[in-house]
């Protein structure tokens, strides 16, 4: 029983963070149609900025997170403007190649600046253990779940209520119609990249709290692909559910059967879902007539 | 303005008898003043000449129909006006009292801000949103966007939303779509979708309304309803309408002036009667033999 609770809490924490990371991916895909292979590196950069803010600059972690958000906004806008906008109208494969290139550049940039040593994220949330029904587990997992849920809720509210959120949904739904409503599609594109990078600051920091600050954060981010394909590339609820499915199965299989299999299982789930529902659980089915 | 009491559409006499609480017309011109001056517009896609030097004029308060066979360049011209296409040559001046705008170099988001609203031949609604959300998006250019306030949705952002909502409710009443207001647009019947698209354009309080085949694919009854809405918008609110339509009965009944395009050229322009007698129009529609 205690193993089960531990695995569940870990799985939920991983799942919530994955959902947050996947949200950024879905945001970009929904609004701009770009499959962003650099989402994992966005997490990486987010984690490093917050780490550098606290450790190198000696800032309070709240200030460091705000700094991370500011850097993310600028980075998102600059990347959209300089890398993606020239690719408008190019084939999907070409755009994907560009984002793969972008991920390599961002990864090298991080390693160039901060090296490859594993660093510990300073204590942002308490690192004590609590025991629940006889099972001890680190309290930072609970914090991770809480912060991820608050962030997801904030984004959900933004999409439902704010003018910008609604305008973003409009662009995702029908670009031409959004344009004649007076919505600047360029601005919305820039904003989706900025928001995706901001969500990655939270996601990356939470990942780093659990596994430390290193290139591994980006590797964890790779799981985002399993999440969004399971949930549906263009579905925000799908990202949430996909995150939880991948997070929990990874822990259960890793804990009960074999840790090695636990690393592979997300991709097995991925293949199984694709066999049954090629557009993911909540993805919009696109029927293309030739 | 012509008498708004009774108007004939086909064989049906229609009463137009309601007043608007909000002024839906965004134009500051007096009826009859020149509102749109299209001059020598040339548009090509590679080797295909879509528009070959079209010159035309639209006056405030009229219903101006653009007719012509398929592929004549009607929609292309509309797209040039709303900023979706950039013609290679020519100018389109849009007059609005003290401020004039050149439309050929403007982005669609700018033309929308200046008061040009439109509907599309193949409905372009936000399929995943409700009718109400679609219409509220029509208010986009009238809302002031303070990012942080709108994020928190408090204070002025909330009041503003309520204010905008009243106008949208009026449009919903006018188009008689109360029953479907909270349904996702994608689930509605075709005729309703066409109506919602008109509503979304009206919610913009346009100075100029561009309608691309608003009655395509409708039955006689739906066409009459749509014709009544268009007349109502034009006569009561005073909004200028540019209309592309294939149903000649409707065009001749409701429009004040008609322009005829054929192979990207303007072949005739004038009142419905003048245009229907024009030999080039008969030729374009019925073939050369009939014109002789």
What does this structure look like?
The complex is a heterodimer of chains A (290) and B (292). Chain A is built from eleven helices and two strands, in the order ααααββααααααα. Chain A has a two-stranded antiparallel sheet with strand order 1-2. With 290 residues, chain A is an all-alpha fold. Chain A is 75% helix and 3% strand. The longest helix of chain A is centred in the first third of the chain and has 31 residues, at 2-32. Chain A has one domain (2-276): Orthogonal Bundle (ABC transporter involved in vitamin B12 uptake, BtuC). In chain B, α3 packs parallel to α6 and α5 packs across α6 (190-203). Helix content of chain B is 36%, strand content 25%. Chain B has two domains: 24-115 and 206-292, P-loop containing nucleotide triphosphate hydrolases (Rossmann fold), CATH 3.40.50.300; 126-204, no CATH class. At the A-B interface, α5, α6 and α7 of A face α2, α3 and α4 of B.
Task: Write a compact overview of the structure shown.
The complex is a heterodimer of chains A (290) and B (292). Chain A is mostly helical and 290 residues long.
From the structure above, extract its key features.
heterodimer; A: 290 residues; mainly alpha; ABC transporter involved in vitamin B12 uptake, BtuC; two-stranded antiparallel ribbon; 11 helices; 2 strands; globular; B: 292 residues; alpha/beta; Rossmann fold; 2 domains; six-stranded mixed sheet; four-stranded antiparallel sheet; 12 strands; disordered N terminus
Question: Secondary structure elements and their pairing?
Answer:
The complex is a heterodimer of chains A (290) and B (292).
Chain A: H1 2-32, H2 39-55, H3 61-84, H4 92-114, E1 129-132, E2 135-138, H5 139-161, H6 163-173, H7 175-180, H8 185-211, H9 216-231, H10 236-257, H11 259-276
Antiparallel strand pairs in A: 1-2
Chain B: E1 6-9, E2 12-15, E3 34-45, E4 48-59, E5 63-67, H1 74-82, E6 89-96, E7 99-102, H2 108-113, E8 116-118, H3 131-137, H4 147-152, H5 156-174, H6 190-203, E9 208-212, H7 220-237, E10 240-244, H8 248-254, E11 257-262, E12 265-270, H9 272-277, H10 279-286, H11 288-291
Parallel strand pairs in B: 5-10, 5-11, 8-9, 9-10
Antiparallel strand pairs in B: 1-2, 3-4, 3-6, 6-7, 11-12
Helix pairs in contact in B: 3-6, 5-6
């Amino acid at each position: 029983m205690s193993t089960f609770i531990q695995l569940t809490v870990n799985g939920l924490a991983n799942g919530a963070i994955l959902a947050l990371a996947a949200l950024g991916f879905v945001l970009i895909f929904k609004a701009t149609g770009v499959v962003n292979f650099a989402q994992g590196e966005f997490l990486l950069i987010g984690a490093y900025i917050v780490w550098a803010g606290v450790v190198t600059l000696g800032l309070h972690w709240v200030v460091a997170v705000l700094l991370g958000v500011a850097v993310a906004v600028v980075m998102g806008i600059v990347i959209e403007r300089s890398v993606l906008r020239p690719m408008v109208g190019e084939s999907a494969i070409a755009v994907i190649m560009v984002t793969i290139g972008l991920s390599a550049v961002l990864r090298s940039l991080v390693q160039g600046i901060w090296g490859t040593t594993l660093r510990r994220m300073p204590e942002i949330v308490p690192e004590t253990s609590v025991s629940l029904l006889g099972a001890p587990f680190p309290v930072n997992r609970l914090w991770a779940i809480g912060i991820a849920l608050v962030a997801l809720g904030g984004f959900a509210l933004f999409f439902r209520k704010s003018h910008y959120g609604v305008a973003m949904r409009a662009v995702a739904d029908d670009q031409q119609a959004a344009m004649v409503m007076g919505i600047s599609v360029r601005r919305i594109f820039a904003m989706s990249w900025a928001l995706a990078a901001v969500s990655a600051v939270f996601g990356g920091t939470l990942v780093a709290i659990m596994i430390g600050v290193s290139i591994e954060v980006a590797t964890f981010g790779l799981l985002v692909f399993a999440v969004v394909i399971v949930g549906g590339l263009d579905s925000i609820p799908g990202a949430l559910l996909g995150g939880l499915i991948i997070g929990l199965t990874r822990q259960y299989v890793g804990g009960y059967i074999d840790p090695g299999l636990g690393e592979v299982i997300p991709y097995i789930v991925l293949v199984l879902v694709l066999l049954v529902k090629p557009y993911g659980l909540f993805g919009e089915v696109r029927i293309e007539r030739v | 303005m012509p008498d708004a009491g009774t108007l004939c559409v086909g064989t049906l006499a229609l009463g137009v008898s309601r007043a608007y609480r909000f002024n839906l017309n965004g134009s500051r011109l007096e009826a009859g003043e020149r509102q749109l001056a299209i001059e020598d517009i040339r548009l090509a896609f590679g080797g295909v000449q879509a528009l070959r030097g079209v010159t035309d004029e639209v006056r405030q308060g009229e219903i101006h129909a653009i007719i012509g066979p398929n592929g004549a360049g009607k929609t292309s011209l509309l797209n040039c006006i709303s900023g979706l296409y950039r013609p290679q040559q020519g100018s389109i001046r849009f007059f609005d009292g003290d401020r004039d705008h050149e439309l050929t170099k403007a982005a669609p988001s700018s033309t929308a801000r200046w008061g040009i609203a439109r509907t599309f031949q193949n409905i372009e609604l936000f399929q995943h949103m409700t009718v109400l959300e679609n219409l509220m998006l029509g208010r986009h250019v009238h809302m002031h966007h303070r990012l942080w306030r709108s994020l928190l949705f408090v204070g002025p952002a909330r009041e503003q939303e309520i204010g905008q909502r009243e106008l949208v409710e009026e449009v919903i009443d006018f188009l008689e779509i109360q029953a479907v207001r909270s349904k996702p647009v994608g689930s509605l019947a075709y005729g309703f979708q066409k109506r919602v698209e008109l509503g979304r354009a009206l919610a913009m309080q346009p100075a100029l309304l561009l309608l691309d085949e608003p009655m395509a694919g409708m039955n006689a009854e739906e066409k009459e309803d749509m014709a009544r809405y268009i007349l109502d918008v034009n006569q009561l609110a005073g909004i200028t309408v540019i209309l592309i339509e294939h149903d000649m009965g409707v065009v001749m009944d409701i429009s004040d002036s008609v322009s005829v395009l054929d192979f990207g050229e303007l072949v005739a322009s004038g009142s419905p009667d003048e245009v229907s007698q024009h030999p080039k129009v008969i030729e374009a529609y019925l073939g050369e033999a009939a014109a002789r």
